[in-house]
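Read as chain and fold; for instance:
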Amino acid sequence: MDTEAQPTTERDRSPRPDMPGPEGRSRFALVSRITEWLPGGRITLTLPVCLVFLLLLNAFVVQPFQIPSGSMEQGLRIGDRVLVNKLAYRFGAPPRRGDVVVFDGTGYFGHADYIKRVVGVGGDHVVCCDQEGRIEVNGRSVDETAFLHPGDTPSSVPFDVVVPDGRLFLLGDHRSDSSDSRDHLGSPGGGMVPVSDVIGRADWIVWPSGHWRRLDRPAAYARVPAPDGVHG
């Protein structure tokens, strides 16, 4: 006797899209257990996550730096806090004349971090002073009055240097109150700091709030030609 085949259906056993799988449930359960165990729950868990994020930000992206002396007055005053862009020179872009940089002075200036302005880069011929008392870079006189401390001269110390490749000639804006490349011409390295020791470029004054501003590169160095034998 023939029997009629009964229709059969197969239940879809795959999980619904909106339902977490076993792995998702286990992770959710783990987080829930941790937050239940911690005093303060999720808020307490958020704090160390934020702290780790800030530490990574400080280590690799941007770092606050407090101005320790009057060597960069009057643009940067004692106690000002600046944000140092640590990525400014990490992708092939070199420091440029006029940049304000923070660098490790160990072996050149002292066992500390310093902040100065870049006056000469690798290959530059830097001289002080021309007939009008101005600094001269690659034969071009530089008018520094926009950022030089009022009453200061570009330098009371004459110098005539050629900056080695991969190094920087650095001066403070308050020339009469700055220990900088001029004071270390007879030291190892001749006062020229390796680019590799630059921590970053100071881009913003962030404290006190009344002094908040961006540190733009001055136009004074824009017309300085490239050193002999260097194009671009």
